[in-house]
## 1
Amino acid sequence: LAKTTQPISMDSYEGQEVNITCSHNNIATNDYITWYQQFPSQGPRFIIQGYKTKVTNEVASLFIPADRKSSTLSLPRVSLSDTAVYYCLVVRTSGTYKYIFGTGTRLKVLA
Amino acid sequence: DVKVTQSSRYLVKRTGEKVFLECVQDMDHENMFWYRQDPGLGLRLIYFSYDVKMKEKGDIPEGYSVSREKKERFSLILESASTNQTSMYLCASGGSRWEQFFGPGTRLTVL
Protein backbone atom coordinates (compact mmCIF):
# COMPACT_ATOMS: atom_id res chain seq x y z
CA LEU A 1 0.00 0.00 0.00
CA ALA A 2 1.07 3.56 -0.69
CA LYS A 3 3.36 5.02 1.95
CA THR A 4 2.31 8.59 2.56
CA THR A 5 4.60 11.53 3.29
CA GLN A 6 3.65 15.06 4.27
CA PRO A 7 5.51 18.20 5.34
CA ILE A 8 5.97 18.26 9.08
CA SER A 9 4.71 21.79 9.60
CA MET A 10 3.44 24.91 7.87
CA ASP A 11 2.67 28.45 8.96
CA SER A 12 0.09 30.72 7.39
CA TYR A 13 -1.71 33.98 8.09
CA GLU A 14 -5.40 34.46 8.59
CA GLY A 15 -7.32 34.92 5.37
CA GLN A 16 -4.79 33.13 3.20
CA GLU A 17 -5.35 29.96 1.20
CA VAL A 18 -3.34 27.02 2.48
CA ASN A 19 -2.31 24.04 0.39
CA ILE A 20 -0.99 20.89 2.06
CA THR A 21 0.41 18.18 -0.17
CA CYS A 22 0.63 14.47 0.54
CA SER A 23 2.85 12.18 -1.50
CA HIS A 24 1.73 8.60 -2.09
CA ASN A 25 3.98 7.39 -4.89
CA ASN A 26 2.88 3.75 -5.10
CA ILE A 27 -0.84 4.29 -4.83
CA ALA A 28 -2.92 1.49 -6.36
CA THR A 29 -6.00 1.52 -8.53
CA ASN A 30 -8.28 0.57 -5.64
CA ASP A 31 -6.95 3.19 -3.22
CA TYR A 32 -8.92 6.25 -2.15
CA ILE A 33 -7.45 9.40 -0.61
CA THR A 34 -8.93 11.05 2.44
CA TRP A 35 -7.94 13.89 4.73
CA TYR A 36 -8.50 14.40 8.43
CA GLN A 37 -8.08 17.28 10.86
CA GLN A 38 -7.03 16.84 14.47
CA PHE A 39 -7.14 19.35 17.31
CA PRO A 40 -5.24 18.78 20.57
CA SER A 41 -6.86 16.27 22.92
CA GLN A 42 -9.36 15.17 20.28
CA GLY A 43 -9.62 12.38 17.77
CA PRO A 44 -9.17 13.19 14.07
CA ARG A 45 -12.17 14.48 12.15
CA PHE A 46 -12.95 13.60 8.53
CA ILE A 47 -12.63 16.51 6.09
CA ILE A 48 -12.82 15.20 2.54
CA GLN A 49 -12.19 12.20 0.32
CA GLY A 50 -11.51 11.71 -3.37
CA TYR A 51 -10.29 9.37 -6.06
CA LYS A 52 -9.16 11.66 -8.87
CA THR A 53 -9.40 15.23 -10.22
CA LYS A 54 -11.01 17.72 -7.87
CA VAL A 55 -13.48 17.42 -5.04
CA THR A 56 -14.92 20.34 -3.11
CA ASN A 57 -17.12 20.54 -0.05
CA GLU A 58 -18.08 23.32 2.33
CA VAL A 59 -14.74 23.37 4.13
CA ALA A 60 -12.03 22.29 1.69
CA SER A 61 -11.01 21.19 -1.77
CA LEU A 62 -8.98 18.17 -2.71
CA PHE A 63 -6.87 18.14 -5.87
CA ILE A 64 -5.61 14.85 -7.24
CA PRO A 65 -3.53 14.83 -10.45
CA ALA A 66 -4.00 12.23 -13.15
CA ASP A 67 -1.18 9.98 -11.92
CA ARG A 68 -2.63 10.10 -8.37
CA LYS A 69 0.82 9.97 -6.82
CA SER A 70 0.08 13.00 -4.71
CA SER A 71 -2.90 14.95 -3.43
CA THR A 72 -3.32 18.50 -2.20
CA LEU A 73 -5.72 19.64 0.45
CA SER A 74 -6.70 23.26 -0.05
CA LEU A 75 -8.17 25.31 2.79
CA PRO A 76 -9.58 28.63 1.58
CA ARG A 77 -9.17 31.75 3.76
CA VAL A 78 -7.93 30.07 6.90
CA SER A 79 -8.71 31.41 10.35
CA LEU A 80 -7.02 30.91 13.72
CA SER A 81 -9.39 28.03 14.43
CA ASP A 82 -7.89 26.07 11.51
CA THR A 83 -4.68 25.62 13.51
CA ALA A 84 -4.49 21.85 13.77
CA VAL A 85 -2.69 18.77 12.48
CA TYR A 86 -3.82 17.55 9.07
CA TYR A 87 -3.44 13.93 8.01
CA CYS A 88 -3.87 12.24 4.68
CA LEU A 89 -5.12 8.67 4.75
CA VAL A 90 -4.91 6.27 1.84
CA VAL A 91 -7.54 3.55 1.97
CA ARG A 92 -7.61 0.39 -0.13
CA THR A 93 -11.24 -0.42 -0.76
CA SER A 94 -11.13 -3.87 -2.29
CA GLY A 95 -9.13 -7.00 -1.76
CA THR A 96 -7.25 -6.88 1.52
CA TYR A 97 -8.26 -3.63 3.17
CA LYS A 98 -5.46 -1.35 4.29
CA TYR A 99 -5.40 2.04 5.96
CA ILE A 100 -2.24 4.12 5.96
CA PHE A 101 -2.15 7.49 7.66
CA GLY A 102 0.52 10.02 6.86
CA THR A 103 2.54 11.41 9.77
CA GLY A 104 0.60 14.64 9.68
CA THR A 105 1.23 18.32 8.91
CA ARG A 106 1.03 20.75 11.77
CA LEU A 107 -0.60 23.94 10.46
CA LYS A 108 -0.24 27.08 12.50
CA VAL A 109 -2.38 30.04 11.50
CA LEU A 110 -1.05 33.39 12.63
CA ALA A 111 -3.03 36.57 13.21
CA ASP B 1 -24.16 13.42 15.53
CA VAL B 2 -22.14 10.23 15.59
CA LYS B 3 -20.85 9.46 19.02
CA VAL B 4 -17.87 7.22 19.68
CA THR B 5 -17.06 6.81 23.33
CA GLN B 6 -14.03 5.24 24.94
CA SER B 7 -14.11 3.83 28.43
CA SER B 8 -11.34 5.97 29.89
CA ARG B 9 -9.50 9.16 28.96
CA TYR B 10 -6.48 8.28 31.08
CA LEU B 11 -5.28 4.90 32.30
CA VAL B 12 -2.21 3.84 34.27
CA LYS B 13 -1.26 0.18 34.41
CA ARG B 14 1.69 -1.89 35.50
CA THR B 15 3.89 -4.03 33.29
CA GLY B 16 2.40 -7.48 32.84
CA GLU B 17 -1.19 -6.46 33.60
CA LYS B 18 -4.01 -7.38 31.25
CA VAL B 19 -5.61 -4.21 29.93
CA PHE B 20 -9.02 -3.75 28.33
CA LEU B 21 -9.89 -0.68 26.31
CA GLU B 22 -13.54 -0.39 25.40
CA CYS B 23 -15.11 1.51 22.55
CA VAL B 24 -18.81 2.02 21.85
CA GLN B 25 -20.46 3.69 18.85
CA ASP B 26 -24.09 4.67 18.48
CA MET B 27 -24.51 4.82 14.69
CA ASP B 28 -24.89 1.17 13.76
CA HIS B 29 -21.63 1.32 11.80
CA GLU B 30 -20.27 -1.91 10.42
CA ASN B 31 -16.61 -0.89 10.57
CA MET B 32 -14.66 -0.22 13.74
CA PHE B 33 -10.96 0.50 14.20
CA TRP B 34 -8.25 0.73 16.83
CA TYR B 35 -5.23 2.97 16.27
CA ARG B 36 -2.35 4.08 18.39
CA GLN B 37 -0.87 7.52 18.03
CA ASP B 38 2.72 8.33 18.94
CA PRO B 39 4.71 11.53 18.43
CA GLY B 40 6.48 11.55 15.09
CA LEU B 41 4.77 8.35 13.97
CA GLY B 42 1.23 9.58 13.42
CA LEU B 43 -1.63 7.10 13.62
CA ARG B 44 -0.98 3.42 13.09
CA LEU B 45 -3.72 0.86 12.68
CA ILE B 46 -3.70 -2.00 15.18
CA TYR B 47 -6.85 -3.91 14.24
CA PHE B 48 -10.13 -3.29 12.50
CA SER B 49 -13.43 -5.09 12.26
CA TYR B 50 -15.96 -4.97 9.44
CA ASP B 51 -18.64 -7.06 11.16
CA VAL B 52 -19.54 -8.72 14.43
CA LYS B 53 -17.00 -11.39 15.34
CA MET B 54 -14.85 -10.43 12.34
CA LYS B 55 -11.42 -8.85 12.68
CA GLU B 56 -8.46 -8.01 10.51
CA LYS B 57 -4.92 -7.22 11.54
CA GLY B 58 -3.60 -3.77 10.86
CA ASP B 59 0.01 -2.71 10.66
CA ILE B 60 1.02 -3.30 14.29
CA PRO B 61 -1.10 -6.09 15.82
CA GLU B 62 1.69 -7.68 17.86
CA GLY B 63 0.93 -7.63 21.56
CA TYR B 64 -2.74 -6.80 21.04
CA SER B 65 -5.97 -8.67 20.48
CA VAL B 66 -9.53 -7.49 19.88
CA SER B 67 -13.07 -8.59 20.49
CA ARG B 68 -16.29 -7.64 18.77
CA GLU B 69 -19.24 -9.54 20.19
CA LYS B 70 -21.80 -6.82 19.50
CA LYS B 71 -21.99 -4.44 16.58
CA GLU B 72 -21.67 -1.31 18.70
CA ARG B 73 -18.74 -2.42 20.83
CA PHE B 74 -15.11 -3.07 19.92
CA SER B 75 -12.59 -3.92 22.60
CA LEU B 76 -8.81 -3.76 22.46
CA ILE B 77 -6.94 -6.10 24.77
CA LEU B 78 -3.34 -5.92 25.85
CA GLU B 79 -2.68 -9.42 27.13
CA SER B 80 0.44 -8.45 29.08
CA ALA B 81 1.09 -4.74 29.02
CA SER B 82 4.62 -3.53 28.37
CA THR B 83 6.18 -0.09 28.65
CA ASN B 84 6.46 0.22 24.86
CA GLN B 85 2.65 0.12 24.72
CA THR B 86 2.45 3.46 26.47
CA SER B 87 0.59 5.54 23.92
CA MET B 88 -2.61 7.31 22.92
CA TYR B 89 -5.19 4.80 21.73
CA LEU B 90 -7.91 5.97 19.38
CA CYS B 91 -11.03 4.09 18.43
CA ALA B 92 -13.05 4.91 15.31
CA SER B 93 -16.15 3.69 13.56
CA GLY B 94 -17.48 4.21 10.06
CA GLY B 95 -20.20 3.22 7.68
CA SER B 96 -17.79 3.58 4.78
CA ARG B 97 -14.12 2.65 4.57
CA TRP B 98 -12.87 6.19 4.30
CA GLU B 99 -15.08 8.26 6.60
CA GLN B 100 -14.17 7.29 10.13
CA PHE B 101 -15.51 8.91 13.27
CA PHE B 102 -13.04 8.95 16.12
CA GLY B 103 -13.46 8.83 19.85
CA PRO B 104 -11.56 11.19 22.17
CA GLY B 105 -8.78 8.71 22.83
CA THR B 106 -7.36 6.91 25.86
CA ARG B 107 -3.93 7.88 27.04
CA LEU B 108 -2.42 4.70 28.45
CA THR B 109 0.69 4.74 30.58
CA VAL B 110 2.38 1.44 31.42
CA LEU B 111 4.79 1.64 34.32
## 2
Amino acid sequence: QVQLKETGPGLVQPTQTLSITCTVSGFSLTSYYMQWVRQTPGKGLEWMGFIRSGGSTEYNSEFKSRLSISRDTSKNQVFLKMNSLKTEDTGVYYCARSLPGYNYYFDYWGQGVMVTVSS
Amino acid sequence: DIQMTQSPASLSASLGETISIECRASEDIYSNLAWYQQKSGKSPQLLIYAANRLQDGVPSRFSGSGSGTQYSLKISGMQPEDEGDYFCLQGSKFPPLTFGSGTKLEIK
Protein backbone atom coordinates (compact mmCIF):
# COMPACT_ATOMS: atom_id res chain seq x y z
CA GLN A 1 0.00 0.00 0.00
CA VAL A 2 1.51 3.28 -1.13
CA GLN A 3 1.67 5.95 1.55
CA LEU A 4 3.37 9.32 1.84
CA LYS A 5 3.47 11.51 4.92
CA GLU A 6 5.02 14.92 5.37
CA THR A 7 6.29 16.12 8.72
CA GLY A 8 7.44 19.63 9.42
CA PRO A 9 7.61 22.45 11.93
CA GLY A 10 4.26 24.19 11.43
CA LEU A 11 5.58 27.64 12.34
CA VAL A 12 8.79 29.17 11.02
CA GLN A 13 10.12 32.67 11.55
CA PRO A 14 10.91 34.93 8.60
CA THR A 15 14.48 34.56 7.29
CA GLN A 16 14.76 31.10 8.86
CA THR A 17 15.04 27.72 7.13
CA LEU A 18 12.14 25.34 6.48
CA SER A 19 12.81 21.61 6.71
CA ILE A 20 10.16 19.07 5.76
CA THR A 21 10.50 15.29 5.62
CA CYS A 22 8.38 13.05 3.41
CA THR A 23 8.36 9.46 4.63
CA VAL A 24 7.10 6.93 2.11
CA SER A 25 6.10 3.27 2.19
CA GLY A 26 4.90 0.71 -0.31
CA PHE A 27 7.40 1.55 -3.05
CA SER A 28 11.06 2.31 -3.62
CA LEU A 29 12.43 5.83 -4.04
CA THR A 30 14.90 4.44 -6.57
CA SER A 31 12.03 3.63 -8.95
CA TYR A 32 10.03 6.88 -8.94
CA TYR A 33 10.46 10.60 -9.25
CA MET A 34 9.38 12.42 -6.09
CA GLN A 35 7.95 15.90 -6.36
CA TRP A 36 7.41 18.78 -3.98
CA VAL A 37 4.40 21.00 -4.59
CA ARG A 38 3.09 23.81 -2.45
CA GLN A 39 -0.24 25.62 -2.28
CA THR A 40 -0.25 29.22 -1.10
CA PRO A 41 -3.05 31.78 -0.85
CA GLY A 42 -1.17 34.09 -3.19
CA LYS A 43 -0.12 31.75 -6.00
CA GLY A 44 -2.21 28.60 -5.68
CA LEU A 45 -0.48 25.34 -6.62
CA GLU A 46 3.23 25.68 -7.44
CA TRP A 47 5.59 22.94 -8.50
CA MET A 48 8.76 23.39 -6.47
CA GLY A 49 11.01 20.63 -7.77
CA PHE A 50 11.68 16.94 -7.94
CA ILE A 51 14.30 14.33 -7.28
CA ARG A 52 14.63 11.70 -9.95
CA SER A 53 14.74 7.98 -9.28
CA GLY A 54 18.48 8.16 -9.90
CA GLY A 55 18.94 10.96 -7.36
CA SER A 56 19.43 14.04 -9.54
CA THR A 57 17.23 17.07 -8.97
CA GLU A 58 15.40 19.83 -10.84
CA TYR A 59 14.07 23.00 -9.29
CA ASN A 60 11.65 25.74 -10.12
CA SER A 61 13.79 28.82 -10.73
CA GLU A 62 11.12 30.79 -8.85
CA PHE A 63 12.84 29.55 -5.70
CA LYS A 64 16.29 30.37 -7.07
CA SER A 65 18.98 29.04 -4.77
CA ARG A 66 16.76 28.88 -1.68
CA LEU A 67 15.56 25.32 -2.28
CA SER A 68 17.22 21.95 -1.84
CA ILE A 69 15.69 18.49 -2.30
CA SER A 70 17.48 15.35 -1.17
CA ARG A 71 16.69 11.83 0.00
CA ASP A 72 17.79 8.93 2.15
CA THR A 73 16.75 5.77 0.35
CA SER A 74 17.67 3.57 3.34
CA LYS A 75 15.10 5.42 5.43
CA ASN A 76 12.55 5.87 2.60
CA GLN A 77 12.63 9.61 3.14
CA VAL A 78 12.72 12.66 0.89
CA PHE A 79 13.70 16.05 2.26
CA LEU A 80 12.85 19.62 1.37
CA LYS A 81 14.92 22.48 2.71
CA MET A 82 14.22 26.09 1.85
CA ASN A 83 16.01 29.01 3.41
CA SER A 84 15.37 32.75 3.71
CA LEU A 85 11.68 32.21 4.33
CA LYS A 86 9.22 35.05 3.75
CA THR A 87 5.62 35.48 4.88
CA GLU A 88 4.55 34.68 1.28
CA ASP A 89 5.93 31.16 1.77
CA THR A 90 3.02 30.41 4.11
CA GLY A 91 1.00 27.53 2.75
CA VAL A 92 0.57 23.77 2.52
CA TYR A 93 3.55 21.75 1.32
CA TYR A 94 2.99 18.39 -0.36
CA CYS A 95 5.24 15.59 -1.50
CA ALA A 96 3.95 13.46 -4.36
CA ARG A 97 5.02 10.39 -6.29
CA SER A 98 5.22 10.21 -10.04
CA LEU A 99 2.81 8.01 -11.97
CA PRO A 100 4.55 4.81 -13.14
CA GLY A 101 5.90 5.43 -16.63
CA TYR A 102 5.05 9.15 -16.53
CA ASN A 103 7.55 11.14 -14.52
CA TYR A 104 5.67 14.43 -14.62
CA TYR A 105 2.25 13.33 -13.42
CA PHE A 106 1.70 12.64 -9.72
CA ASP A 107 -0.59 9.85 -8.60
CA TYR A 108 -0.02 9.60 -4.85
CA TRP A 109 0.22 12.65 -2.60
CA GLY A 110 0.89 13.09 1.08
CA GLN A 111 -1.73 14.78 3.22
CA GLY A 112 0.33 17.97 3.22
CA VAL A 113 1.89 19.97 6.02
CA MET A 114 0.73 23.48 6.82
CA VAL A 115 3.61 25.92 7.25
CA THR A 116 3.09 29.39 8.64
CA VAL A 117 5.89 31.93 8.29
CA SER A 118 5.46 34.50 11.00
CA SER A 119 7.37 36.18 13.77
CA ASP B 1 7.87 29.17 -18.72
CA ILE B 2 4.63 27.75 -20.11
CA GLN B 3 1.59 29.61 -18.75
CA MET B 4 -1.65 27.70 -18.22
CA THR B 5 -4.83 29.77 -18.45
CA GLN B 6 -7.77 27.95 -16.90
CA SER B 7 -11.44 28.85 -17.23
CA PRO B 8 -13.90 29.41 -15.80
CA ALA B 9 -12.68 30.39 -12.34
CA SER B 10 -15.91 29.14 -10.84
CA LEU B 11 -18.86 27.12 -12.03
CA SER B 12 -22.19 26.11 -10.58
CA ALA B 13 -23.90 23.02 -11.98
CA SER B 14 -27.10 21.09 -11.31
CA LEU B 15 -27.03 17.40 -10.50
CA GLY B 16 -26.87 15.41 -13.74
CA GLU B 17 -25.63 18.37 -15.76
CA THR B 18 -22.63 18.00 -18.09
CA ILE B 19 -19.89 20.57 -17.57
CA SER B 20 -16.56 21.44 -19.14
CA ILE B 21 -13.46 23.14 -17.81
CA GLU B 22 -10.82 24.50 -20.17
CA CYS B 23 -7.06 24.99 -20.00
CA ARG B 24 -5.12 26.90 -22.61
CA ALA B 25 -1.34 26.64 -22.74
CA SER B 26 0.90 29.51 -23.88
CA GLU B 27 2.54 27.11 -26.35
CA ASP B 28 2.05 23.60 -27.69
CA ILE B 29 2.29 21.07 -24.86
CA TYR B 30 1.80 17.99 -27.07
CA SER B 31 -0.96 16.47 -24.88
CA ASN B 32 1.30 16.47 -21.82
CA LEU B 33 -1.52 17.55 -19.54
CA ALA B 34 -3.13 16.23 -16.38
CA TRP B 35 -6.30 17.15 -14.52
CA TYR B 36 -6.63 17.04 -10.73
CA GLN B 37 -9.56 17.31 -8.35
CA GLN B 38 -9.07 18.74 -4.89
CA LYS B 39 -11.74 18.55 -2.23
CA SER B 40 -11.76 20.93 0.70
CA GLY B 41 -8.90 20.25 3.09
CA LYS B 42 -7.58 17.32 1.03
CA SER B 43 -4.69 16.65 -1.31
CA PRO B 44 -5.21 16.85 -5.08
CA GLN B 45 -6.25 13.61 -6.78
CA LEU B 46 -5.22 12.67 -10.29
CA LEU B 47 -8.19 12.29 -12.65
CA ILE B 48 -6.76 12.40 -16.17
CA TYR B 49 -3.21 12.22 -17.54
CA ALA B 50 -1.71 12.52 -21.01
CA ALA B 51 -4.72 14.69 -21.87
CA ASN B 52 -7.25 11.87 -22.17
CA ARG B 53 -6.19 8.84 -20.12
CA LEU B 54 -8.43 8.07 -17.16
CA GLN B 55 -6.57 7.32 -13.95
CA ASP B 56 -7.40 3.97 -12.33
CA GLY B 57 -10.43 4.16 -10.07
CA VAL B 58 -11.75 7.44 -11.48
CA PRO B 59 -15.40 7.30 -12.59
CA SER B 60 -15.96 7.15 -16.35
CA ARG B 61 -18.09 10.32 -16.26
CA PHE B 62 -14.77 12.19 -16.23
CA SER B 63 -13.08 12.59 -19.58
CA GLY B 64 -10.31 14.70 -21.05
CA SER B 65 -9.67 15.92 -24.55
CA GLY B 66 -7.62 18.38 -26.51
CA SER B 67 -4.37 18.89 -28.33
CA GLY B 68 -1.84 21.58 -29.05
CA THR B 69 -2.62 24.44 -26.71
CA GLN B 70 -6.29 23.76 -25.91
CA TYR B 71 -7.53 21.12 -23.46
CA SER B 72 -10.73 20.38 -21.62
CA LEU B 73 -12.09 18.27 -18.80
CA LYS B 74 -15.68 17.10 -19.08
CA ILE B 75 -17.91 15.74 -16.34
CA SER B 76 -20.86 13.96 -17.90
CA GLY B 77 -23.57 14.07 -15.28
CA MET B 78 -22.59 16.11 -12.23
CA GLN B 79 -22.72 14.19 -8.95
CA PRO B 80 -22.66 15.61 -5.40
CA GLU B 81 -19.20 14.18 -4.78
CA ASP B 82 -17.81 16.12 -7.77
CA GLU B 83 -17.89 19.40 -5.86
CA GLY B 84 -14.39 20.74 -5.40
CA ASP B 85 -11.54 22.53 -7.09
CA TYR B 86 -10.10 21.36 -10.40
CA PHE B 87 -6.61 22.09 -11.73
CA CYS B 88 -4.73 21.34 -14.88
CA LEU B 89 -0.97 20.67 -14.92
CA GLN B 90 1.33 20.77 -17.93
CA GLY B 91 4.20 18.30 -18.02
CA SER B 92 5.62 19.15 -21.42
CA LYS B 93 8.37 21.59 -20.67
CA PHE B 94 10.20 22.01 -17.42
CA PRO B 95 11.39 23.42 -15.26
CA PRO B 96 8.94 24.44 -14.20
CA LEU B 97 5.92 22.19 -14.42
CA THR B 98 3.01 24.61 -14.25
CA PHE B 99 -0.51 24.43 -12.89
CA GLY B 100 -3.62 26.25 -14.01
CA SER B 101 -5.19 28.68 -11.57
CA GLY B 102 -8.08 26.37 -10.76
CA THR B 103 -11.84 26.10 -11.19
CA LYS B 104 -14.20 25.97 -8.21
CA LEU B 105 -17.12 23.65 -9.02
CA GLU B 106 -20.24 23.82 -6.90
CA ILE B 107 -23.69 22.29 -7.02
CA LYS B 108 -26.47 24.67 -7.99
